[in-house]
Amino acid sequence: MIDFNSEVSAFVHIYLLLILGYAVFIMSSYLILAYLSAKELRSYLKRNSFVDYEVLLSSEYAPALSLIAPAYNEGLTIKENVRSLLSLNYNNYQVILVNDGSKDNSMEILIESYELEPVNFRYNGQIPTKLIRKVYASKNAAFKKLIVVDKENGGKADALNVGLNIASNPYVVCIDVDCILDKDSLLKLSKPFLEGNGKRVIATGGVVRIANQCVIRDGRLVEVNIPDNMLPRIQVLEYLRAFLLGRMAWGHLDGLLLISGAFGAFDKEIALLAGGYDTKTVGEDMELVVRMRRYMLENKMPYTVSYIPDPLCWTEAPETRSIFVKQRSRWMRGTIETLFLHKKMFMNPKYKLLGMISVPYWTFFEFLAPFIEFAGIIITVAFVVLGILNWHYFILMLLFVYTFAVMFSVLALYTEERTYHKYRKRTDFAKMLMAAFIEPIYFHPITVYAALKGYYEKARGKKTWGEMTRKGFAKK
Amino acid sequence: MEHIWNSYKSGIWLDTILLWLILLFVGVAGMLFLFIIVIRSEKITRRKNYYNYNTVIETIFMQVVFAGRSYASVANDQEYSKYFKIKHFRKQLMKSLINMHQNYDGTSAKILESFYFESGLMETSLAKLKNRKTHIVCSGIQELAEMKITKAFPLLVKLSQSRSKEIKIAAIKACTKLNGNKGIVHLVYHKDPIDMWEQVNIVSAFKRNYVEDNDEIELLLTSGNTTVISLGLKIIHTLELARKLPYVVDLAENAPNEHIKLEAQELLLFLTTKNQGDDRF
């Protein structure tokens, strides 16, 4: 009995030290990334305070862009969304709207609103896709930038691949059709393609922010608000942390693995050479970036992936718990699929920073973290049942993690305040601060549950996206 | 040593570390919160001051530009003299002055230039060129160029060799503004590569300040720096300078690399087609 007790005690000690070690490791990495992000953000803002983006408007050397917007059952908002895409501040671009076999009246609305007629469009079928029914262009010269492709349903990745095949410009910008883009977003997104410094810029990503309860007028964001609903409100904070204190650092290190599917630009030639979007994964945005980078590294071609911290794209976050869980479980499936597909890169020095830092980071902190947290909960419950939980340490550890989480969120708020200062109302700031305190006890457990659901769905072989119902933006 | 070992064995060390870290996190969060409050209140004050200063600045410029009042009389006026000692006011005054100068020509522009000179704002701009912060140097360059301070040209040529891309662009743009086509001829000896973004900016500035009877653009095609040659080709293309055709023909035949050869051939085709088109009409 004495032996058993000492063994249990040793196990508890080791467990506590391991958990503490993991927590310290993850927290340190967050702090290092935050430091690098802040440094890079400061430098970016200073460097760009004198940039005149408008020179691109009148320049024939501005990169020619093709915007690819896949749409599925977006009939309610498609007319306004396309109009907003056609009125961006950029000259050298085309809009390719891919109707992915919508079951609603999206096509009828588009044909009528934009005076579309079928055209014989010659395109490169480099990537195999589902059947294209028809390609449309407008009879009206005012909409000459618009091309609409009507195809059989094949999912978002397949629709994006159709866009890649059809695009006639060297750079493609992949966007979610329902996103609200900043008027100058294309000017800012295209600039890095002109400044490679001997390296080929294969992709550029921009910051995505939450637009719930913001006011939209004529497809443009005119008033930034913080949602009243706690779930999207916490997502505002989460996005601030992720984009201002995380991705900026990865961009600085040139180790970015993910460019949001909602808004990112790619070098079309490299995207095609890498094989386009993978239709078998639900995390096609991350997978494409990893594959493009892998392609460049394996072919020993100097390259870089650029990242812009300006808030250029605003999207609607899930407002209900069920839709949120669906979204996050899909994200986890996407992460698992990408990491598994590219497992060869894990700790492989051949893939440089990507193989030695980015991929291991994603594996330990994005993929494994929910599992470790869940295991922690199970073991803690077991300790409670067995009566061996050291409540003193348990509470100290809990406070340690909680205070760190709150501090990190306040740091994100501080960074936002010092840089973009988008949330100007005092009440909005108070709401965000409250969210920082509530997040660890309300929002975080849901994200862990959603990630576990993602593991389960992946194990069951689920491959679909699931329905993502959206509420729509407030309009003026 | 024994004390440390004993505390390690007893687990007190963990207790102490965790407690200190919790306090540290709470302290840092509290400090950040206070910083946010300070930043927000500073922004509110600055916004308030901005509107106040704007009213004063507008009145001063109305009197200077349209009522013929000199800087000296304004600076000695009790109503305004206190403002000239405020750093933020001078900053805003400079911005407004530059903005106004961009929108005015002729006599009004000349009056504003005198104001810039007499008020000592020119010295402020020159001092900015020595600052270590990129954005401050750039604003200094922009101000001097806007106010046509030609004596700053040698300084600007020096700055156009800067390692900072932003300073380089601002300086080259300023050189073209101050010295027309001659403002960029010094690039022939430029050693560092000029990337596409810089080229686009220079071409755009050049388009704005091009003077037809004073061109030596073809000199860029003789540079040892291929990015400068490429820039020269782009300028000829953008301005459709058909009379530079012989230089382009020469470059197409003796290009330093394939990329330049291709670019020169494309331009050659463009200019030849354009020439034929012009002949037809």
Q: What do you see in this structure?
A:
The complex is a heterodimer of chains A (476) and B (281). Chain A contains 13 helices and 13 strands. With 476 residues, chain A is α/β, with parallel strands linked by helices. Chain A has one domain. A ten-stranded mixed beta sheet of chain A has the order 3-4-5-2-1-6-11-8-12-7, sandwiched between helices. A three-stranded mixed beta sheet of chain A has the order 10-9-13, with no helix packed on it. In chain A, helix 12 packs across helix 13. Chain A is globular, with a radius of gyration of 23 Å. The mean pLDDT of chain A is 92. Chain B has 281 residues and is mostly helical. Chain B folds into two domains: 71 residues; 147 residues, no CATH class. Chain B is 74% helix and 0% strand. The longest helix of chain B is centred in the first third of the chain and has 55 residues. Chain B is flat and about 85 Å long. Chain B starts with a helix and ends with a helix. In chain B, 32% of the residues are buried. The interface between A and B is large, with 42 and 40 residues.
Cα distance, first to last residue of chain B? 97 Å
**Would you report the number of β strands of chain B?**
0
The domain tally of chain B reads: 2
Per DSSP, the total helix count of chain B is: 14
Unreliable residue runs of chain A: none
Largest interface: A-B, 42 and 40 residues
What does the main sheet of chain B amount to? none
Question: So what's the overall shape of chain A?
Answer: globular
Please bin the fraction of helical residues of chain A.
40-55%
Average the pLDDT over all residues of chain B and give the rounded result: 90
Instruction: Extract low-pLDDT stretches of chain B.
Output: none
Taken in chain order, the helices and strands of chain A follow as HEHEHEEEHEEHEEEHEHHEHHHHHE
Number of strands of chain A: 13
- Distance separating the two termini of chain A: 73 Å
Shape of chain B: flat
Give a brief description.
The complex is a heterodimer of chains A (476) and B (281). Chain A is an alpha/beta fold. Chain A has helices at residues 2-48, 78-86, 106-113, 156-166, 185-190, 230-253, 268-273, 284-298, 321-341, 352-367, 369-386, 391-418, 426-460; strands at 65-71, 93-100, 116-119, 132-138, 146-151, 171-175, 180-181, 200-210, 215-217, 220-223, 263-267, 303-315, 474-475.
